Structure formats: structure tokens, C-alpha cells
Protein 1
Amino acid sequence: MSILIQISYLVASVLFIIGIKMMNKTKDARNGNFISGVGMLIAIVATILQIDLLTLPEILACVVIGSAIGLYYARAVEMTGIPEMVALFNGFGGLASVAVGLSDYFFRMGKAEPLDVIIGVSILASLLIGGVTFTGSMVAYGKLSGKVTGSPVTFKGQHLLNLVLLIAFIVLSVLVFTNPGNTFFIIAVTVVGLLLGILTVIPIGGADMPVVISLLNSYSGMAACATGFILNNNVLIVAGSLVGASGIILTQIMCKAMNRSLTNVLLGGFGQAPSAGPQDGPQIVIKEVGVEEAAMLFDSASSVIVVPGYGMAVAQAQHVIRELMEQCEKRNISFKFAIHPVAGRMPGHMNVLLAEANISYDKLIEMEQINDEFANTDLVFVVGANDVVNPAARTNPQSPIFGMPILNADKAKTVIVSKRSMGKGYAGIENELFGYPNCLMLFGDAKQTITKVVNEMKEL
Ligand code: NAP
């Protein structure tokens, strides 16, 4: 039986790795997710077969309740609410690690078992990383959902306090080993972990929150890995390591895309760069365009690049953009999409929405591949994007987004921007592109205005 279970864990681990590898390419991502899901099912069944703590009906009841809650939220969540949901999931992963760490500690102490180094270190790691992940994710969830302030919360001596807490953790950990069975020290270690999670995430605000979510995702994997050592469960160690490593890789990719260093993220207290408010730059004078004129500009272009952003997700404009694409392609106009790595509110946000509208993957071009094409493009259509095309990232050292790589939309012959008003983007700053001589503003909800443009094109 034990060999069968270990073989099942091996198969599950291989399926996880294949699944993650397939998520590398948008077109294979759905199948990759399915394959990883099958791996998880195998791992769960194998684990259930060896549990002797609960009866089968009790386990099944937990599985049914957990799956029902998961299914409900997965179906109910709006696409724009996914980052919040990911934050909650990470947080519960961390909480589970804390629960396992504490219960294993008390179980061993109850049987007066000595705490060996590997198990002891794994329990302490579960409590620290799991605790940080839990409270950090709850703060991130609160910030993203607007339940707590999104602005950085800072105070004097914040980093020093974090350092003191880290030292306290080390001292308390030694005391846990030297005083086995002493409840105070193990609870104190847990409280330190929980406090550190809050204190490292509250100073982070604004546009850096996605990096934090990704980092916490990695932490939840590391906590699960430590839990795997406690429970002597190989598949948990492998799955935790995979989540931990892929989370760190994604964090690094996002840091690069948002021009933040990983050290800066790890130390917390970022997202406080000086802001360049509207009063800091010259007054922006804009030019408006109507739907008829916009339709004519599309009709006469030979190449179009669409830059989708968060506003496209809000307006759910992806389907009508496909119709616009069909109208353009009927006229032999080259039509592509430029995808910025942090467009929208989660990694891959734009890819998912455009795929939902049956826009083929090969039309979605990553920033590095498409940025040189803008200068030779007739018309760039910015749909609900703002920060990711803000030239201030190149030109204004005072701007909070200075240094962030952006899409070179401003280099095209003509730029049309579809948005409702002169409202700002996530970073909360003005966009000088809107005042450029080659830029025209098409005001209104993206879905409604693009529908009108498409109808106009049908008449031409
Ligand atoms: P953005 O800078 O947030 O701008 C979105 C724009 O959409 C707004 O200026 C808004 O202007 C417009 N908009 C809203 N509703 C609309 C509607 N119904 N129709 C048309 N336009 C609408 O978006 P972005 O350029 O995609 O940049 C993403 C930002 O989010 C970056 O700063 C990034 O760092 C941050 N972020 C990214 C992630 C991620 O992982 N992708 C996660 C969290 C945060 P109006 O109000 O005038 O309409």
C-alpha cells in the first residue's frame, strides 16, 4: 500500500510539473491547469487512503463542503476580483500551515515525544511563513477590496520593529527547543509570525500590490513545503516547492515590469515614491474624436495595434473588440494586440479576456516583441489602458512609475484612447500622452463607444 501511495505521489508530482510547464504558453494553459488538477486529485485520493485520524465519511464531508465553497466563489467572482480571491486563497494556505504546525507540535508534546531538529525547524518555519502569509494576505485582500486603506501605512521605526520581531522569532525558536512542552514560547512564535505579516504589507500601497500577492503566493508554497516535512508527505513538499519557486519567478518578472527591485519588495515599505500630481506638469490640452471620425480612421489605416487595459475588463469590451477586428481584417488591415505584463489587475488578465472573446493567441504580442512596431503603425487604439502607455515612465523622474517599461503607443502615427473621462489609472497620475498632438480621446464606456464605431464601419 505504502509503495502504491508513494508511486501515486510521484505521478501527481510529475503531472504538476507538466501542468506548470504547459502554462508557459497561453494556448496550452487551460490543458495545463486540467493536468495539474488531475495530479491534485491523485494526491488527495492517495492521502485520504492513508489517513487514520478521521473516518472516510468525515473526510468526504470536509471535501464536499470545501469543494462547494470553492466552486461557488470561483463561479461568482468577477474577473476584476480575481487578485482579491488569490490573496484570500494564499492566506488560507498560510493559515492551514499554521494549524498543521501547531497541532503537530501539541500532538508530539502530548505524547512526550522529543522534538528532533528537522521536525522542530519545519514546525517553526510553518508557523513563521504560514503566519506571515495569512495576515499579509488578509491585509492585501483588504487593500485590494477597499476594506482597508490602499495607501501605504508607515510610521517611524517600522523597519527596526520588523528587525526586532525577526530577532525575537530566532530567540523564541531556540527557547521552543530548550523548553519542550512550554506553550508560551510556541504561541509567542506564532504571534510574531502573524504580526510580521501585517507589518510587512501595510507599508505597501498602490501599484505594487500585485507584486505582494505574487510574493505571498510564493510564501504560501514555502509554508506548504515546510508542512510537507512535518507530515512526512512527499507530494506536499514537491507541490509547495513548485508554488514557492514559481511564485518567486513571477514576482521577479512583475518587479521588472513595474521597475521595482526584489530587495525593495522583501524589505517592504515600498510604493511610496513621490507622486507627480497634475499640478506638477504642464496643463494637458486634449483633442476629442467622435465615433464617425474614429470609424473613418480605422477604415483608412493599414495597420492597427490595440492596447487593452483595465478599463476593457471593466467595460467587458473584449467581444466588441473582436467585431472591430473582424471589420478591420475584412479590409485587409493588419490587427494586433499589445500586451503589457501588468495591464489590468492580475498577470495574464488581458490574455484571459481576449481568449474568452475567441481572439486567437497569435494576435496577442508581448511588450518586448511589439514595442518596436509602434513607430511603423498607423493607428494605436488604447482601450481602457492608462498607466501602461504613460510616457512619464520614460520622461518624468519624479513620477511614481518612472522607469517602468511601457508600451510605445505614443510613437504611432495616430493614437485613439477609449475611456470614460480624464480619470486616472491605478497609479493615480496624469497621463501626458492624452495631450500629445497625435492623440485623440474617444470618451465613453469602451463597450458602448466601440459598438458604435463598429456599427459606423459596417455602414462605410
Ligand atoms: P489603469 O492605468 O488602471 O487605467 C485604467 C483606465 O481604464 C482608467 O484610466 C479608466 O479611465 C479607464 N476605464 C475604467 N472603466 C472604463 C470603461 N468602462 N470604459 C473605458 N475605460 C474605462 O490600467 P492599465 O493601463 O491596464 O494599468 C494597470 C495598472 O494596474 C498598472 O499601474 C499596474 O501596475 C496596476 N496593477 C496591475 C496588476 C496586474 O497584475 N496586472 C495588478 C494590480 C495593479 P476613466 O475612469 O476615465 O474611464
Protein 2
Amino acid sequence: MENVIIIGTGPAGYTAAIYSARADLAPLILTGSQPGGQLTTTTDVENFPGFPEGIMGPELMQKMQQQAERFGARVENGVAVTNVIHNADKSFTVEAHNVFSPDDKKVYQTKTVIIASGASARYLGLPGEEELVKSGAGLTACATCDGAFYRDVPVCVIGGGDSAAEEATFLTKFASKVYLIHRREELRASKIMAARALANEKVEPVWNSGVTGYVLDENKRIKAVKLKNTVDGTESELAVEGVFMAIGHNPNTGFISKDLVDQDDSGYLIQIPGKTATKTPGVFAAGDVADTVYRQGITAAGQGCAASLEAEHYIANLEG
Ligand code: NAP
């Protein structure tokens, strides 16, 4: 019987692991298919406190893992959780399988579960997107992380929601021009955020348009996007050096039943207000999997800390 099983290895999962390990709970961490989470898909991280020169995303996550392991956390790589079952004796059964061979099933028993499985930015599904993101070639889904790399060059934001409006406004601090490419001619964003973005003289909306491809220069960096008008089908190219995707995120919650943890319409886990605890005692949620607002590495880390402290308290009460 484990004390704590942590599902996910982004900043929330590893911070929960560091705190649980230092509390002598010997946590078991299951990495899933993307060890290190979303930060491993970015290059320079300049906004995580403690690294004045910045740090590469994968290196930051490696350091968090080392810090957790130093205190006795155990990391099982390549294990994807498929179900969490609440047992009659208040414990949990975690069912999983090997991500490389799904027939290789695994079952764990635990007193508490911290769900820190994160969210995945949506991309358009065009060929080569994954490589463009990984190589830092001009495609990203995080203006806060990467905006400062695009000083005095034209960029575009794809999407029409609050994220797109907010990111377009933010990017005007750096970019020479911010094209806001939306598939309709009206933003979904709240009136105030839409008005703020559109009032900025650097923001130029490109209505009724979808991106159908990326045009690369000789260094394999983006130099333009291909556009298709969603009304009349006309095609064109727009010169940009950075493409910021803001078409929403998908929380990684497919393996969690709504009987165990309430979810909003998009699948984000719902915590008890002001806590990381969920409606099922012993199950805690931390980081992007339950965050529709901030979605930052440091806010996820803070929630991971809180989840660990709450789990420790819960276990102490079980035993007391
Ligand atoms: P969102 O509200 O779901 O908006 C996604 C946008 O992307 C929509 O405009 C949608 O177009 C477009 N889109 C979706 N799939 C697309 C595709 N395949 N191709 C082209 N466009 C596509 O997502 P979000 O903006 O990330 O916001 C998520 C939640 O967080 C919202 O509740 C939002 O209010 C909240 N949020 C709040 C703040 C804040 O208050 N500071 C900041 C950011 C986000 P359509 O409009 O045509 O559907």
C-alpha cells in the first residue's frame, strides 16, 4: 500500500513529490507518456524564479526530478494510468499500463492520489507542428514564455477566445505587428479583452481565415503562414516569424471518472474552493489539470506543494 501516488511529472507533480518525499511518505510518481510535461516542449524558460539567466525547459524538469529522487521519491517511467478506483476501505486502486506495450498492465494500491496530469495545448494538426515546437522554430502555444524572443518582428496569434485576445495584447510589447487570425469575423473573447486587443494599433485582425500550412526559411524557421479564407476559399500567405497558437487546451483527464472527481464542461478537474482536495477524500488535483486561468509552471508548482501538504494531513488523520 503506497502512501501517495502522483500522476504526472510536470512542475505540479514533481513539487508534490519533493514535499511528500521530505515528509517521509516515499511517493510513487507515474510519468505517463510525456515525462516532464509541457515544459519539456519549450526551450528557454525565463520566468521561473531562481534562474536569473533562464533555463531550458527539459533541464528544469530534470532538476525537479533529481530533487524529488534525492529525498526518496520513486519515478516509474512510461506508465500511463487508465483508471482510479475508490475502494470500500477508503484506499484507491490505480490501474495502468506500459505506454509502449499496452498489454503490460500494472495495478497499484494507495492511500491518496495526487492528479497532476496537466493539459495539452491544442494545435491545428498540420504536418510538422511537433517538430517546429520542439526545435523552437517559431511555433509555440505560450506567449508568456516565448513572446520576448520575438522583438521587432511580425507574429500572429491563432484563435478568437480570451487566450488569443490576451496573448495578442501581451505580444504587442515585443513584436512589430501582431496579426490575430480567427476563423470567424467575431471574437469569442469577453468584450473587454477583445476591445483591448483590437484597440491596440499593433494588432491587426485577420477575419474569416484559417492557417493551412507553415512556410519555412533556409534555417527551417517559420517565415510565413498559408491562409485560406473560410468564406470564399481564397488562399494567401502572411509573413510572420512567430506563430502563437491559442485555440484552447485539453486537460489530460480521460482516465478519471466523473464519479471520482467532478469535471467542468471541458474536462478540467474541479477542486473544493480554496483547496486542491476534490469531492473524493484522498484525491487531490494540482496544476494545469485543474487550472483554466493561470497555467504557469510556477502556479502549478505551488499547487503541487499544496496538494502534498493536504495529502500528508489527510493520511495523518486516517492513521490518527
Ligand atoms: P476558448 O475560449 O475555447 O477559445 C478557443 C478559440 O480558438 C475560439 O475562438 C475558437 O474559435 C478557436 N478555435 C478552436 N479550435 C480551432 C481550430 N481548430 N482552428 C481555428 N480556431 C480554433 O479557449 P481559451 O481562449 O484558451 O479560453 C479557455 C478558458 O479560459 C475560457 O473560459 C476563457 O474565458 C478562460 N481564459 C480567461 C482569461 C482571463 O480571464 N484572463 C485568459 C485566458 C483564458 P470559435 O470562436 O470559432 O469557436
Protein 3
Amino acid sequence: MTDERPIAVVTGASAGIGAATVDALVGAGWNVIAAARRIDRLQELAARHGDHCLPIALDVTDAASAASLPQRLPEGWRAVAALVNNAGHDIGGKTPFEERPVADWIAIIETNISGMMRVTHALAPALLAARGHVVNIGSIAGVTALANDSAYCASKFAVNGFSKALRLDYSGRMRVTEILPGVVETEFDRVRRHGDDEAARRFYAAFARRLQPEDIAACVLFALSQPAHVTIAELLVMPSA
Ligand code: 8X3
């Protein structure tokens, strides 16, 4: 790869907001490393983008997988200038706290906050060298409590605190943005409900309007497209009705 396009890493890139973000960034002139656990699911996405998308296996809950990410990048893909921390889930969520094993709740924390920290830590040297940009996908659940979603809210409030503090730590050296979406229509809810399509359909149908993954990808691109003296700190994004 010899072109001068800037390089971004997107986690959780195999579907939903992650895949839409890969599409948007490649379309806007980035080369994108699309990272997710299931590399087979990244192949179709990568095939759409030819040389401008590199699929790579990444399990953010696996310390070795995250820590080795920079070394696993091929030459020409190592000067990462942006990281979009999108990997996250709410498996078992929308359930009263006592009704599920605590391990389920801790698994949400493990992916949504520990995973985000692992990948950010691994890529921090490259991002600092590039005077780069971290974009964390938070949630409205990071500033407002949602009923029966205590672990998810805890994880997203943590993402909000992590993002705010990281922005201070790296002021002048690296930009940090948090995007906080309201309800986005993806496979997120079906995964949350262990594949129950009908329950997911009912959940999204309860909202008059839902955001689409492309709406959030456009917000990521907006944040990344600002001139160097502008930091989009937080974007709270809601469906219009
Ligand atoms: C999105 C949370 O409950 O709107 O982060 O699907 S929910």
C-alpha cells in the first residue's frame, strides 16, 4: 500500500455502526482496519473496499489479542491516526439485575469498558505519534439511567468518564470524542436477547423513529473531519421522534 490516505482502526466492525463507519471512512478517503472477533464476517465488508480496508481478528476481551494488535498490523498499516472504539454489547440486558448471573453483567463491563481501554492502550503510542484521534461510541445510557439495564448503564457511564478524562490527559496531543447515540436499529437488540428476532422487532417498533447505523457513522466522520484546532468532545444523538 503506497497511497497517503490516513489510517483508522474500527472495532466491532463486522456489523451495525462499526460496518457503517468503515464504509463512511473509506468513502471519505481513509484506509480502514476493520477489526472484529469473527474475521469471516469482515471479508464481505473488506471485499467492497479493495485495498482500502484491512480485515483483522480482534477480541477486545482477550488481553493478548488487544495488546498484539499493533504488531499484527502489516507494514503500511501501522501509522494509525484514528481509533473508533465501537465494540460493545448488552447481552442479557433489559432484565432486572438479580435475574441473571452476575457473570453476565461483568461480561458487559469486560467488553464495553475494559475492552475499550485495552485497545486504546495498545494503540496509544501510534495515535500519539500521529497527533491522532480516538472516537468512543458511548450511549445515551452513559448519561441517563435506563431501567433494567444496570450493567450496560454502568459500562456506558464508565465510557463517558473514561472519554472525559482521556481528553484531559491528551489535550494538545490527541483528540478524544465520544458519540452517545439513542436507539439505533441494528442487530444489537437481537444479540442482547440471545437471537430472539421477534423480541427485537417489538423493541425497535416501540420507538416511533430509530437512528440508523449510517447516522452514527456520519457523526464519527464529522468529528474526524474537523480542523486540528476543533475537538468535538461529545455528540448526544437522538432519533427525532
Ligand atoms: C443503546 C441502548 O437500549 O437504546 O446504546 O438499545 S438501547
Protein 4
Amino acid sequence: MIERIKELRAELEALSAASEQEVEALRIKYLSKKGAVSALMNDFRNVPAEQKREVGQAINELKNFATERINALREEAASHSAGASLLDLTRSAAPVRLGTRHPLSLVREQIIDIFRRLGFTVAEGPEIEDDWHVFESLNFAPDHPARDMQDTFFITRNPDVLLRTHTSSVQTRVMTSQKPPIRIICPGRVYRNEAISARAHCFFHQVEALYIDKNVTFADLRQTLLYFAREMFGPQTDIRLRPSYFPFTEPSAEMDISCDLCGGKGCSFCKGTGWVEILGCGMVDPAVLEACGIDSKEYSGFALGMGIERITNLKYRVKDLRLFSENDIRFLEEFTAAH
Ligand code: DAH
């Protein structure tokens, strides 16, 4: 009897099972009513009285051991089948390294967002333009220096195919295709034939705004500019308009904001004046409206244009324009927190 118990124990120790069904078959073989351990119990009555104590104890131990083995095999088989699908829905996701947004994109979105709150919608135009949209419709005289080969990139032998030098061309694209009221904001890349340095580049970015409706006045322009300046640079910001000249606006002005480095007292950043220039603006010249088929007796409007690089420099103090297009990851990563 004791021999038989030892044999069974050895068998149980050597057991293995590949699936839960196999474990169940083993359970039936050893632990069910007709199983091997029950068979030993049935034989127990034939054990001589003086061995009963020893054999009884051995059978009990065997039964416990068999139960433990079968349970262990069952757990093993269950974890195998879960592992087979490699799917653990409770596991947390692997961390993904986030990129950063380009500082010019960040500032462009901030500008658009401010004008959107005033009812402006985004309009875009082509970067490859013709003379009419970039210059002629905007009142540039035929011999205006801005048309000069020094400034404008002509990209074919045809002098009517050129890269736009400003986003004001989008104004005329929209004015010739839509009826007033027009309230648009036009972000885009522009090109000028300039030597690349810390302060100039052959391409840069502008945002243009145009508002045409009945009875639009200079007061509307001024209020829009003040709202923009305070939203962009903070509520303490003051603005100043200086008379200027652009062919497509009359009157024209340049807007300065109070220098937020020195609070207007004068420092090296604002060259001691307390003011920094940020954009050009004015009332749309009636000749421009007429060129685009808009009745200048019925409608008036204002326009403004600014360089995104310039605004970004003011906000984030980027000293060298070239950093914007070099894609140096160390520079770009500085804007991770600026989302
Ligand atoms: N287009 C001008 C430039 O590139 C900027 C500008 C000035 C745009 C005055 C305007 C404006 O709409 O009214 O320098």
C-alpha cells in the first residue's frame, strides 16, 4: 500500500498539462470518486489494523498533495492561455514623447484667435502670384521700388509670375471674389530677395487683416488695434499710431506698442523710446476698392498687416531670425510649455 502511495506521488510530481482541459482530465484521473486516490481509500479497509494509522496519514497527505498539484497546474494553464493573446487591457499605455509646436505657428494661432473673437475668418491665397494681385490692384505705381528685381523673386522669364512679397495680395483675391461685408484674417508666407542675416530673411510670415463694410471708420481700426495689442501683450499695453505711407491705404499709420520690457520708461530694447513698432495699417484707399469692383462711395474699410516673426520676437525675445528656419531641436524644444 505504502509502495502504491509513493508511486502515485512520483506520478503527480512529474505531471504537466498544456491546457485547462488536460488539467481537468488529470483531476478526474486522480481526485474524482473513481480516481486513483479514492481507490486507495476503498482499499484502506483491507489494511491490517496496526498499519492503519501510518497508511491513513500517508493517504491524506497524498490527497492534499494531489489537490495542490492540480490547482497549480490549472493556474499555470490559465496564465498560458491569457498570455497567448498578449492582450492586457488594464496595462497603462507606453509614454509617447510629444513634439513641440513651432513658435511661429504658436504665435500665428494666437493672432488668429484674437481676431476670430472679433468676427474675422481666415482667408488664404497663393504664394505664387501675379503682378496685379501683389502690386497693381494695390495702387503700386508701375515704377514703385517694391516691384524692383532687388526685392521681388520672379520665378520664370515671365515677369507676371512672382512670389508674393506680402499677404496684402490676399486682400485683393478676396475683394474680387466676395461681396462686402468682408472681415478676413490672412496668415501666410511671403518672400523677398534679401540677404539672410539675424535681422532679415528671404522668406518670412505675415498676417493681414481686412474689414470692409458700410461706415467703417478710423475709430474702428484704432479700437481693433487696441484690443489686439492688449490681448496679445497684456492689459497694461498702450498703443501709439504714427502717420506713415503705404500705396494701398489712405491715411496710413504704423502702430507702436509700449515697451513691456521697461514699461515704457526707455531701455536698450526699445532704443530708449519706450515704444516698439509692430505693424502697418490704414484705411483702404478708395482706388483699391474700385480696382476690385467695390463701390467706394458705399463702402469703406481698414487693413492692417504684421510680421509674425516680429511679434514672436517681442513675445519670446528670439534675437536671431535664422533660428526660425534652422530646425534646431534645442531651440524648438524651448517652446514645449508654451502650448
Ligand atoms: N503689406 C505691408 C508690408 O508688407 C504691410 C501692411 C501695411 C499691410 C499696411 C496692410 C496695411 O494691410 O494696411 O510691409
